[in-house]
Amino acid sequence: MKIKYLPAVIASLLSVNSYATSNDVEQTDFKSTSEAIHQNIINKIDELHVYASDANNVIIENGKRKIEVNGEKYYITDDNYIFFDMPRPFLDETAFRNVFDFIDDDWELTWYEGGMVVVNKHFGNYDYGNGCLMEYYPDGTVDANGATHVALETTSCKVNDFETTQQYFSNGTFITAEQLGVETLAITAVERYQDKLFVTQDTNPAFVTILDINTKEIIGRIEGIDTPRGYQAYNRINEISITDGRLYVSSLSSNRVDIFDLENNNELVVSLGSGTGSWSGTNGLIHAQASAATTDYVFVTDAQTRISVYRQKDLTLDNPNYAKRAGFLTFEGKYSNRKVQMHTIGDHLIVSTADRGYFIYDLTKVEQALVDGVELAAEKVVSLNVQKIDLDNNTLVVTYSNRIEWHDAEAFVQNEFEFGEPQKTIKALDGKVISNLKDIHFSNNEMVTATSERISINHLLNNEITFISGDSIEQDTIKFDQLMPTSVTQVLGNDEAHEILTNRELRSVNINSLVQTKLLDNNTVQITNYAAKELRDISPELKLNGVNKWFKLGTIDRLPAYAQVVLPLSAFGPNHQFNSANNDGVFDLSDLFASNIEVKDLFEHRFSSSTDTFAQKLSRLKPSWEIRFAGTADHQWRDMNGLYAREWLIIMTNFAHLVSSDEFKHVWFNFEDIMGYNMHSYAGQVDEVGGYFTDEDYKYYYQSMLKRPYVNVGITSMGGGLGSAAITGVDTWMFYSHYYGQWGIIAHEFGHGFDGKSYSHNTSFANGGNGWQPLMTMVANYHIRKGDMPYMDDNIHGFYKPENDAYQYADISLGKRKHRSESHMYPLDDYFMTLSDMPQGWFAHSEQFTPEGLSNQERMMLAKMPIHGDDPYLCRFEYTTETGSTTLHGYVEAVDDAQYRCTGGEEISYRLPNGDKVNVASSINEFEWLSLYSPEQKGEQVVTDNGQALCAINKTDFYGVGFVNSGSQCAQQSEVFWSNGNQWKFTYGWIDYKYR
């Protein structure tokens, strides 16, 4: 294995003594370094904020406010925070370094939405939400600690080295049902011992086939055992395991575990159970499921709530049909058909149940528990949708429904028995995606996988990759409009065939990689835009499995929505050379693509854009869910079509944005404090495992939700929706009402399969009034008001439009295309407003204030005055005549970009002492706004300085703001008249104002 370091990293390691070799020391050092820079950035931002808050330091140019820093001018927000223009070229750091001159060249500075992302070149990364970076937000954000302008993440800081030895699996050799002598495969387990492969056939009768791994020929079968009561054939075999030359066969319906000596012609050593094949008796096993062995003990799971423990010293040939149980470990509830595997990792036993999770036991405590006659409890229980686990020396090989991961076993133990980032991952073998493997076995770089169709044997091989540090190549941008028409197609059209839409190979996409890049072969690439908008200046990026560095394929000037482009790889460069994603070197992959290696399954993909802010927003989505389109299950479901598929992608993109947001993360990790109660899982509302969430549960479920393997989306017709780990469907009205806040049912059905496991209504994941559904309803409506969802406008796709009638399964209810009233506040709206510095009640206008500088939610708190179908902001001002001054009300009128006044409009006049009537308005910028935000007065009427309720006319032909007089009329001062010559006074048709 050859590891290449960037020159800058080498220099850093040589010059900075604190970069120690210990991971813990490194993490502490990197965190400390990041925190120091973070604090310096905060200090500078605060210093500039104070400076910009002084009107004497503000420069007005073309109606925009700026400040000068070290000779350069920068925009400032209405809250007086510095705002950076997008640099051109995009990677130009000059504007940032002029402000933050204390940040040295060890740090990379990039632009995002007027702010700045800061990443250390030596140990940082851009894994947003779980990364090693800092980000400055001009408009502020919320993290776990509350409101801030500079967020810091130090979760995954580590030296940025990468291996250039790329590993891949050879093309496989296969073993079929015919070779195993059966009509159809019913494999539950495969194990290897020396040159022999042991394969189960889980039928009745059941058996274990023994093959020569080299010749693939059958050399034996184990079909049962001889007993004093006669031959006992197997009825169902759940699992087999091999330890120290002994084969352990767990037979479900034979209710026993048989142990054979593989070094002595497969001789039976002992049978664990009652000895009768029945579950009766003191030592009976009820539906044996799995076993594991150490030098001292054998552990067996069955359908009961306990794991049986046997001492090895009792398992001898002297009594092969009877072995006494020594004691128990505690386990989960009674389940007859659960799929269980057990492995020993050092001094610990891991007991894994497919798609449910695993239990960890401390083996050093077993003997004392047996002596004391107590059941040993698990040290830890982890809920995780793993399917199979194999152990190869110090490596754990873990399968999920769509991938296989390799993890260091020691790191797994050190990480408190949680899986961290895998050493490597594969999502396909032999050109087929990984999907629901029956079992795996990995040893000596050989992978054996079993499916319902075949057994595959693949070998792990190495290929050296060339990376030229510090180099770069020139690449021309591909012009979409110059592509051959035969190179471009549209996907997800209304009339696209159902069998294509529901074919995962042809139509599925990871939500965080909506520009999908696939290598069709060693010479051809397919790029698909699954976004509902055209994207510009798109750079598809690829990363070889096991090589922890991304490279840019090239750049396409534009990709229309749902466009699929097929191009020769040579279109991006004739020599298979590509710039790294962070432009610090060149990958030369010419040897790889010229080889006979099938490369299409070796790459991961993502995308970036240096100019398109919408594309940048999509590229920062945190979940990795694969979005698939479901077929028709039964009468409650409808056939998928392109119209619904496109809208589902919009829905799931917005949903991914919600759970990627800082606000969601803040609420999730402060759930009980903010929501007033605690989430709970399958055990219910109890203080026990699977009950009320602990801090560790919130961490676990946050990550497991983001890593949910897939969301299989469908269309229901039943008055709501249906959901599980396997499928998520909602009725037609949700496909257009989600823009307006209808997210409860969508969240509910997603919650049934929250992280790839199915959850009932008795959990907080899928309960109408508790946990996930109300949380996501509020989070979605908050972000709709905030205005930052990727898709806010239902006209972008136009699902509801009459032109799509033929493809809609139900009539459109236009009444559902309506936002909630501005006065409606969810508890989360109220909570986030407490983090706002918005003024409360009446406040004087200042040059720093504009409504545009507020969030949508804050703007809704500004009182408005109804006027001829429009709703300008309400205001008041002091109007002075020769006899004195009085307070008049009106609406805010913009004079230009930086100047406003409060006016009564042309229809309202004021009678002067001499009898003349004149239209009235404040002096420029001399008036007050009304903020209805006032938590302490929430629900109370807004009153004038004289204690009279503020009111406004809400009639088509009139407008104006006044006060409620003693006659319950909405009136203004007696000098105020309407254009018809009558005094401004109304008995009905008026509204009042209340604080929120």
General description of the model:
By secondary structure, the chain is of the alpha+beta class. Helix content is 16%, strand content 33%. The chain has 17 helices and 69 strands. Strands 42, 52, 53, 54, 55 and 56 form a six-stranded mixed beta sheet that branches. Strands 11, 12, 37, 38 and 39 form a five-stranded antiparallel beta sheet that branches. The longest helix is centred in the first third of the chain and has 30 residues, at 23-52. The radius of gyration is 34 Å and the shape is elongated. Residues 1-22 have low confidence and may be disordered.
What is the β-strand count? 69
Major β-sheet, in short?
6 strands, mixed
Shape: elongated
End-to-end span in angstroms? 64 Å
Helix content: 10-25%
Q: Which parts are unreliable, with pLDDT below 50 for 5 consecutive residues or more? A: 1-22
Mean pLDDT: 91
Strand content: 25-35%
Class from helix and strand fractions = alpha+beta
Determine the number of helices (DSSP H or I, runs of at least 4 residues). Answer: 17
Q: What does the radius of gyration come to? A: 34 Å
Task: Kindly summarize this structure in a few lines.
The protein is α+β, with helices and mostly antiparallel strands and 996 residues long. The protein is 16% helix and 33% strand.
